[in-house]
């Protein structure tokens, strides 16, 4: 089935309309829906009752923007679904009080949040015997190349292990141009892509034999 896609510009206009006076969604509502959708995709793709390995760790890497916020929400729901999420949040957003509330909620549910000060400890979760999957919630459709540190190094790490641990990308694989696709030699090829609201043009460049595509 061919899915309709929208450009980065149109995706931004859709978000603006959804949060405009005629519809009235808040950013918090949309982020809650997005994060919940990603968590549902993880449970569908990696159901605990069918996982013979007994692994329950889901490693969520959150960026500083709205895509990262979706990841924080996803982690909270995964905890309630019975998984053991660990969040790596190297650059915390100070954009609004809402992001602080999201991390407070993770603390309330005893979900570990690793910061950039723990540059080495986060890599211990990049092992297939510990981690069921990685949620890539670093950058979304507003990403503009090039990647900068620490995210360049993070994406390089994910590229090197993506054949060992499946990656679930939120809306757009991090480091991809939303319209044109990969912009670096080392790029993420996710096992799962969860497009939010509608798919973006880069989703058409994924290998459908290797990537399962959900619409959240």
UniProtKB/TrEMBL annotation:
Reaction catalysis annotation: (6R)-NADPHX = (6S)-NADPHX; (6R)-NADHX = (6S)-NADHX
Domain YjeF N-terminal span(s) in chain numbering: 11-216
InterPro entries named in the record: YjeF_N_dom, YjeF_N_dom_sf, YJEFN_prot_NAXE-like
EC number(s) recorded for this UniProt protein: 5.1.99.6
GO cellular component labels: mitochondrion
Entry-linked Pfam families: YjeF_N
Stated name of the protein: NAD(P)H-hydrate epimerase
Organism per entry: Maudiozyma exigua
Lineage: Eukaryota, Fungi, Dikarya, Ascomycota, Saccharomycotina
């Amino acid at each position: 089935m061919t899915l309709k896609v929208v450009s980065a510009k149109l995706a931004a206009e859709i978000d603006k309309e959804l949060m405009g006076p005629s519809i009235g969604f808040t950013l918090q509502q949309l982020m809650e829906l997005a994060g919940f959708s990603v968590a549902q995709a993880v449970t569908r793709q990696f159901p605990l009752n069918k996982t013979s390995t007994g692994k329950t760790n889901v490693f969520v890497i959150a960026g500083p923007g709205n895509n990262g916020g979706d990841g924080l929400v996803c982690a909270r729901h995964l905890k309630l679904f019975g998984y053991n999420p660990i969040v790596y949040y190297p650059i915390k957003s100070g954009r609004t009080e809402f992001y602080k509330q999201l991390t407070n909620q993770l603390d309330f549910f005893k979900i570990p949040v690793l910061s950039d000060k723990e540059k080495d400890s986060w890599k211990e979760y990049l092992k297939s015997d510990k981690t069921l999957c990685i949620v890539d919630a670093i950058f979304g459709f507003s990403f503009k190349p090039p990647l900068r540190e620490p995210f360049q190094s993070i994406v390089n790490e994910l590229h090197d292990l993506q054949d060992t641990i499946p990656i679930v990308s939120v809306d757009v694989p991090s480091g991809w141009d939303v319209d044109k696709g990969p912009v670096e030699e080392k790029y993420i090829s996710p096992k799962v892509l969860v497009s939010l609201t509608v798919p973006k043009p880069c989703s058409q460049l994924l290998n459908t034999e290797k990537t399962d595509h959900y619409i959240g």
